[in-house]
Specification:
about 190 residues, alpha+beta, four-stranded antiparallel beta sheet, 3 helices, transmembrane, transmembrane helix
Length: about 190
């Protein structure tokens, strides 16, 4: 009987230690994320492109013209077209969009524009974030700096940098702490 109680007490001790270790891991990750968010908020600011209450699909940022519009053909399966410097960059299909799209609010499920400013240097960056298909977790970002240099980044939700995480957060119009949303699958948190 004493041996059995000894085994049970060892099992409970090990199980408790394992649960305590897992809890400490998640608390540590949460603290890390909080510090990162704080540092990001201190360094960067997102500026709105709204004019008269709307963001227009044609924007010019330091000589780089960006245009978003619907494909010319008729029918419900019209694609959303993104042009950068008057060249076709992306054609996104499957999104439900009103046929008389004149503002960016029509395209918010597929593409968003934002201006990001480094608070220390004052340098601006124009960010275009695209969801490639409605059901996918595949994204593409275009990062245009003040010199007109464009960096393109393709990534999936599970293969992203911290900065790309922020851009997805801007895309979804949520708070800056978006990481946990994408790391959660079916109610289970993956870190």
């Amino acid at each position: 009987m004493k041996k059995r109680l000894l085994y049970v007490s060892h099992f409970v001790f090990i199980a408790g230690l394992l649960i305590l270790t897992m809890a400490a891991y998640f608390v540590l990750q949460s603290i890390r994320e909080t510090f990162y968010q704080s540092r990001f908020d201190q360094q960067y600011e997102f500026r709105s492109l709204e004019e008269d209450g709307e963001v227009y699909p044609v924007q010019v940022f330091h000589g780089v013209k960006v245009n978003t519009f619907l494909e010319e053909k008729d029918g419900p399966d019209r694609a959303i077209i993104l042009e950068v410097k008057d060249e076709l960059e992306a054609k996104m299909k499957g999104f439900k969009v009103e046929s008389d799209a004149k503002e960016m609010s029509t395209f918010t499920d597929a593409i968003q524009y934002k201006v990001m400013v480094d608070k220390k240097t004052g340098k601006e960056s124009f960010i275009m974030t695209l969801r490639l298909t409605p059901e996918s977790k595949q994204y593409r970002t275009y990062h245009v700096n003040e010199n007109g240099v464009i960096k393109v980044s393709n990534f999936a939700v599970d293969q992203k940098s911290k900065m790309e995480t922020q851009w997805i957060g801007v895309f979804l119009e949520r708070s800056m702490d978006i990481t946990r949303i994408f790391l959660t699958k079916r109610g289970v948190l993956y870190l």
